[in-house]
Every structure is written in structure tokens, then in C-alpha cells.
Amino acid sequence: MRYCKRCVYPEIAVNLLVDDEGVCSACRVHDEVDQIPESQWARRKDLFVRLLEQGRKGREGDYDCVVGVSGGKDSYFQVDVVKSLGFKPLLVTYHGNNYLPEGQGNLDRMRHVTGCDHLVLGPSVDTLIRLNRHAFYKMGDMNWHNHAGIFMTPMRIAIQWKIPFVVWGETAWDLAGMYSPDDFVEWSKRMTLEHAMRGFTWRDFVGHDGLTEQDMTWLKMPSDDDFERSGVRGIYVGNFFRWDANEHVKLVTQKYGFEAARQPFERTYRTFSNLDDMHENGIHDYLKFVKFGYGRGSDHASKDIRGKYMSRAEGIEAVRRYDHVKPTRDLHRWLDYVGMEEAEFDRVADTFRDKRVWTQDASGAWRKDNIWDFEAREAAAHAP
Hints:
This protein is of the alpha/beta class.
């Protein structure tokens, strides 16, 4: 396994490429973003304003845009941008049931402190429990319903209520460098289906755990005809405004009273991310480690290295400390939630291990190549 020589991402990370100089695509695109001058950011802001103004002129409803919000730091920032420019958003939330108390408090606070109307869709808890359980068996991702619901619900509401734009947050550059900052990527059905939804739809769950089509009406993608007739577009704030989560959390904490997690997470040092699902930083992320050999420690450290909040050596120590941890408190809560034994969880999780990453030794223990092993090989190869 190769690792990026600037951040701590392994080559297997989602949609990532490592070039001949050993630098990953996410770091390369971050360089491009860093080189955007303030004058161009000003032009991008003007473009964002012109887009929403065009939508306002042709709108049939009462709102200028939908902002999909989880109550997290990023959605607070998105709302702040839209409101500060004089536009009227409708806040739309997909509620997946397992909010941390601090996350639920942040969500509830939004309409009080932003002055916005707020629509929340929360599927039945029984349906969500069954989707948690069956998605774990089907793809090793109990949070599939969240990925689908978060991207689907705001678009469905925008089409139904004839609202011209849905405003999203960070772009795909921020994670793996999939696109150039000059691409101005917009939301698409294809990206949602192939990336967020892993190629699965509600149809793949009908009949499993007693799930019916009626249980999952909210998971149905609007038709191509609906999209074409509505003209709804999904645009990303990160294409138009400099994106820095560490700066965002300072702003929204001071301005709106945003609250980070009171209790540290077991698998990452950040306490201000992913409060809308208590398992996102926990057992969901542990499954990513089981499958691909890296986790939230690598994700957050790589972003913070690029943002110059952390050295690469500090990032490697974060990977060493967090990526391998099996979050027992989080796991036991989820096992109780879905009615599963830990031995069954481990058995199923092992079936998703990527053989490019994992091997078993003679005793049956799973082994992988780590970033410190890679660093030692690189040092030996270049030793005089």
C-alpha cells in the first residue's frame, strides 16, 4: 500500500489517486484552491448571488432556495452565507433518529437563531432500525439510509414546492480531489446514486426484514421528467466561498451558539463533526477501517494537514492512535438498537475486508500495511 507523502491518506481511499511523485489527488487539488486569489473569490461570490437572484425572479413559491441542514457546523455556515446575502431559504432536514444530544440541540436551535422556516422529515424508527440492520448485512454500512436521505430529501422538497435551488456545502474537492475548483460541479442523480447510495435503491430493501415499498416512499428518487420540468439545481457553497471547517466552527459557535460534542469520540480527535448520527464517528467509521484499513483519524488529520493546522508527523500519530480502535461503547449501543450479538457483527464485518489491504496470518489474525511501515520502507530505500 502506498500513502500520500503530504497527508496520511492511503492510495485506497475513496476516489483517490496518488501520482508519480507520491502526492495524492486531494492534496493536488487543495494546492489549486490555495492558489485562487481573493479577486477570484470575489467573482465567485458575485456568481453565487447572480444565480440565486435569477432563481428568485423566476420562482413560483415563497423561498429562494432550500438549504439541506443536519444542524452541524457546515449547515449553519451554509445558512449564514445565504441569509447574509439577503435570500430567504427553507431549511430541510432528513432525520435519521440517532442524533447525539448536542447534535439534536444544534438542530432544534437553528430556526430560533437563524429566523428560518424549518422542515424535518423523520422516517419511522422501526423502519430505520430495519434499514440499519439490513444495510449492514447487504453492504457493511448501517448508515446507508442517512447518505440516501440527506441527498434525496432536500431535492424532493425543492421539486415539490417549486423552489429553484438547493444549496449544499463542501464540494467533492475537499475529500479526494475528484474535481478541479474550476469545474463548478453541481448535484446530480448519477453522483447521488453511484457515490452516496453505493448503487443501491429502495428496491434492494423491499422484502428484507419485512420492509415494504410503502415504508420507503421517502427514498424514491424524483424522475428525470420531474427534474426537467422543475429546473431545480443543486449548487455547492464550497465552489463560491473559501471552505475551512475549522474557521466555520469558530464563526457558528460565536454567532449562533453551536455546541460541539461534550464527550470525546473514540475514533477521532475532532469533537465538532458528525453530531447528527452518534454512530458516524463510531461504529460506522470502524467498518470503513475494517473494509479499507483507514478511518476518521486519517480523514480529519489529512484535512488538517492540508489546512496547516497539523504537521504530517502529528497526523501519523493521530492515525496510530485512532484508526484501529473498536469503539465498544458505540458498538454496544448499536447492537442493542438493532438486536444483534457482537460475534455476529464481527463475522459479517470480516466478509467485507478488502483483500488489497488485509491478509490473515497463520493464527487467523488480520494484518495490514500501515503508514509507519510505508515510511520505514521509503526511508530505507533512500538511505545512503
